[in-house]
Specification:
It contains 22 helices and 21 strands. By secondary structure, the protein is an alpha+beta fold. The protein has 3 domains: 37 residues; 166 residues, Penicillin-binding protein 2a (Domain 2) (Alpha-Beta Complex); 333 residues, Beta-lactamase (3-Layer(aba) Sandwich), CATH 3.40.710. Helix 13 packs antiparallel against helix 19 and helix 14 crosses helix 19.
C-alpha cells in the first residue's frame, strides 16, 4: 500500500515537472513570438534609438577664383571633435590623453564638459586636420565622435585678403566678397542615418537621407598676377616711406572690372590671430579723403563742357596768390600767364580756382556728380562709402574756390579710379564690378567725348618733362595722369606735416587699357608729394601690368630704357 502511495506521489511529481517544463517552453515560445512578432517594431525603434543616429553631412562652399580660374578661396576637408557629455564622463581616466593630443587645457575641458552633462552634444575642438582626426578615432574614447566639416583656405593669403574676405568658424562669410556673396557660395548640408557602437563611433552608414549640395563657384574680375604686382609695390612703398597706410586700385578702362585692389596694412585670412578690425578693413572702398589736385581734371572739364574756356585759353595766375573771401589760394610759385593745359601740368591752384569761379556752380556739380562722386560706385562691396559732395546750392564762394583743387569734398580710392575711367572711356561711365564680365556693360554719358579726349592729351604733359609726375612715366607707353598732395585736416584746421600722396593714371593714353589710383596715407619723411611717393608705384605696377596684358606700346619714339634707368636712380 505504501509502495503504491509512493508510486502515486512520484507520478504526481513527474507530471508536475512535465507541466512546469511545458509551461516554461510555452512561456519561452510566447516570449519569442512576443519579441519577434508582437513587439518587433517597438523593440527595433528602441534599439535604433540607442544605436542609430541621424547625423549631418557637411557641404563645402563654392570656390572663388580669379578671372583666369586660379583659386583665391577654396574649402578643404577637416574634422571636428564632439562628445556626448554623459558618455564621455564615464571615461574620465582617458581625458588627459585626449586633451594632450588635441592641445586642450585639461582643467578647462573638464570644467566645460561637467557643466554640460544635461546636453547630448558639445564641440571639443573644431577643424582639426584629418590626420589628427584619425589619431583621435584610434583612441576609441567613449562618447567621442568626429564630424566632417570644411575649412576655408586662401592661397594668396594677405595679397587678396581685403577683396576676398574670410568666413567664420561655421563657414559663414564675414568680410569682403565672402560676405557679399555668402548665399551664393554657401552649400546646403545633407543628412544620413548611421549605426554607432557603444563608444559612439560610427560603424556603418545605413542610408543617405538628404544629399549635400555644394555652394556655387564665383569667378572674380581680379587678375592674381596684377594683384600680386600691385600688392608688392604698395607694401614696398608704405614701408619705404614709413606711411600709416596705403591703397591701390587697378580698373579695366574698357569694362570697369576691378583687376587689382590692395591695401596696407594687410592680414592673412588663414591666420585668425591677425583678425583685428583695423587690419581687415578694405580702405580702398571704406576710407574717404579729400582728393586734392586729382580733382582738377573734372572741375576743368566742367568749364570745357560749358564752353567757358578752351584748351588754349590763357589764365593769369600772377602773382601766385589769390584771395577768395577770407581764404588765400596759393601756388608753390608764380606761374604767370599760362594756358589751361599748363594749369594741369603745373597743378596751379590759382589757375584752377579762376577757371572754376568763371564756371556756373551747377555745371561743376553736374560733372562731379556724373563721374560718380558723392555716391557709391555700385560695386556691391560691403561697407562701401559714398564719399561727400554737397549740392551746389550750399556752396559759398570760398567753397567753390577750394573745390576747384579738391578740398571740401571726399572720395574713396575706388571712386577716384572709377572717375578717371570716364576720361579713359571717352566720356562714358561704366559700373564697377568685382565679377568677371563676359562683355562690357553699357555706360552712361558723363562728359562729352571731345572733352574727355582733350583732357587725356593734357594730362600726358603732367607725366612729361616739367610736369608734376615724371616718375609716373612707363617706358614705351604714353601715360595720362594727375598728382595730388593733400594736407590732412585736424582739430585746428589743416596740418602742416601730415599729408596724403595720390596719383591717378591712365595707360596707354592713346588707347586706354588700365586706370590706376594710388593713395599713400601720411608718408613720414622728406618725400611726401604725390609725384614723389605715389607716382612711382603707378609706374612700376603699370610697366609690369601692360607687359602681362601684352598691350602694344604707343610711344616707341620715347627712350624707354633711359627712363627706366632714370626712375631706378631716383
Amino acid at each position: 500500500m505504501a509502495s503504491k502511495t509512493q508510486q502515486g506521489g512520484a507520478g504526481y511529481r513527474l507530471t508536475l515537472v512535465y507541466a512546469l517544463v511545458a509551461l516554461s517552453v510555452t512561456a519561452l515560445l510566447w516570449r519569442v513570438v512576443d519579441l519577434h512578432v508582437v513587439q518587433r517594431d517597438t523593440l527595433r525603434r528602441e534599439g535604433d534609438a540607442r544605436s542609430v543616429r541621424v547625423v549631418p553631412v557637411a557641404a563645402h562652399r563654392g570656390v572663388i577664383s580669379d578671372r583666369h580660374g586660379e583659386p583665391l578661396a577654396m574649402s578643404t576637408p577637416v574634422d571636428s571633435v564632439w562628445v556626448q557629455p554623459q558618455a564621455f564622463a564615464q571615461a574620465r581616466e582617458r581625458w588627459p590623453q585626449l586633451a594632450k593630443l588635441l592641445g586642450l587645457n585639461r582643467k578647462r575641458m573638464t570644467r566645460e564638459v561637467l557643466a554640460r552633462q544635461d546636453r547630448e552634444f558639445m564641440y571639443l575642438k573644431r577643424r582639426i586636420s584629418p590626420d589628427l582626426g584619425n589619431k583621435v578615432r584610434a583612441l576609441k574614447v567613449p562618447g567621442v565622435s568626429l564630424l566632417r566639416e570644411y575649412r576655408r583656405y586662401y592661397p594668396l593669403g594677405e595679397v587678396a585678403a581685403h577683396v576676398v574676405g574670410f568666413t567664420n568658424v561655421d563657414d559663414v562669410g564675414q568680410e569682403g566678397l565672402e560676405l557679399a556673396y555668402n548665399e551664393w557660395l554657401m552649400g546646403t548640408p545633407g543628412s544620413q542615418r548611421v549605426l554607432k557602437d557603444r563608444l559612439g563611433q560610427i560603424i556603418e552608414v545605413v542610408d543617405l537621407i538628404d544629399a549635400p549640395r555644394a555652394g556655387q563657384d564665383l569667378v572674380l574680375s581680379l587678375d592674381r598676377r596684377l594683384q600680386y604686382l600691385a600688392y608688392r609695390e604698395l607694401k614696398r612703398t608704405v614701408l619705404q616711406h614709413r606711411a600709416r597706410s596705403g591703397s591701390a586700385v587697378v580698373l579695366d578702362a574698357r569694362s570697369g572690372e576691378v583687376l587689382a585692389m590692395v591695401n596696407q596694412p594687410s592680414y592673412n585670412p588663414n591666420n585668425r590671430g591677425q583678425f583685428t578690425g583695423g587690419r581687415y578693413r578694405n580702405r580702398a572702398v571704406t576710407d574717404v579723403f579729400e582728393p586734392g589736385s586729382t580733382i582738377k581734371p573734372f572741375t576743368i572739364a566742367a568749364a570745357l563742357d560749358s564752353g567757358r574756356v578752351a584748351g588754349s585759353t590763357v589764365v593769369d595766375t600772377t602773382p601766385g596768390l589769390l584771395r577768395v573771401g577770407g581764404a588765400m589760394v596759393r601756388d608753390i610759385r608764380n606761374y604767370g600767364r599760362i594756358d589751361v593745359a599748363t594749369v594741369l601740368k603745373k597743378s596751379s591752384n590759382v589757375g584752377a580756382t579762376k577757371i572754376v569761379m568763371n564756371t556756373p556752380p551747377a555745371s561743376v556739380w553736374e560733372v562731379l556728380s556724373a563721374v560718380g562722386f558723392g555716391r557709391p560706385s555700385g560695386s556691391g562691396f560691403p561697407g562701401e562709402a559714398s564719399g561727400l559732395l554737397a549740392h551746389y546750392a550750399k556752396w559759398r564762394k570760398v567753397e567753390r574756390a577750394t573745390l576747384a583743387f579738391g578740398y571740401g569734398m571726399s572720395v574713396t580710392a575706388l571712386q577716384l579710379a572709377h572717375a578717371y575711367t570716364v576720361l579713359a572711356g571717352n566720356g562714358q561711365l561704366r559700373p564697377v564690378t568685382f565679377l568677371r564680365a563676359a562683355q562690357p556693360s553699357d555706360g552712361e554719358a558723363a562728359l562729352k567725348a571731345r572733352t574727355a579726349r582733350q583732357l587725356r592729351r593734357m594730362l600726358q604733359d603732367v607725366v612729361g618733362e616739367g610736369g608734376t609726375a615724371p616718375l609716373a612715366a612707363v617706358p614705351g607707353y604714353r601715360v595720362a595722369g594727375k598728382t595730388g598732395t593733400i594736407k590732412k585736416a585736424d582739430a585746428d584746421g589743416y596740418s602742416e606735416d601730415r599729408y596724403i600722396a595720390v596719383f591717378v593714371g591712365i595707360a596707354p593714353a592713346s588707347d586706354p587699357r588700365l586706370v590706376m589710383a594710388v593713395v599713400i596715407n601720411e608718408p613720414r619723411g622728406e618725400a611726401y608729394y604725390g609725384g614723389e611717393v605715389a607716382a612711382p608705384v603707378f609706374a612700376r605696377v603699370m610697366e609690369g601690368a601692360l607687359r602681362l596684358l601684352d598691350a602694344p606700346p604707343d610711344n616707341l619714339e620715347r627712350n624707354g630704357p633711359r627712363l627706366a634707368l632714370m626712375r631706378t636712380a631716383q
